[in-house]
Specification:
The chain is mainly alpha-helical and about 160 residues long. It is built from seven helices and no strands. Helix 2 packs across helix 3. The longest helix is centred in the middle third of the chain and has 28 residues.
Length: about 160
Amino acid sequence: MQAKEQQFKELFLSEYGRMYKAAYILLGDEDEAKDVVQDIFAKLWAGTAPIKEESQRTFLLTCVRNRCLNIIAQRQTHQESIKFLTPEAVDCEAYDEIIVDAVNRYVDERLTPQTSRIIKMHYNENQSYKEISHSLGISLSAVNKHIVQGLRKLRSTFKNREV
């Protein structure tokens, strides 16, 4: 076994348990905790996360904490977006109405007032970028920026929704 492999194996054996416990405490899920630790070690092995020997324990636990916090934030975003889509036994027309209502509510409540206004002008009132630009006294690129940002937020919120 090469020196690098031996060092990696020793690091894995000495720190895995501590890292797993920290991840489990933060996430409350065994499989997710194992995945977090495995992902961190995979990045270490691939060399994408360099580590100094004198601070390796602190570094590894910081990696665990940061990855777990990202997962928790993703969970919260997912839970918030579910509030907009409450599944009910509905026919296709009602389903479409629920989706449209959820998107409209999101645009009203979660986007900035200016982005919300521009999205509505473009999609609800069928105004062109040029018409919006002229009406609001802003540049075409500003209109484009608001629409792109608004659509990006909508997509990330609703992309994995099942109603």
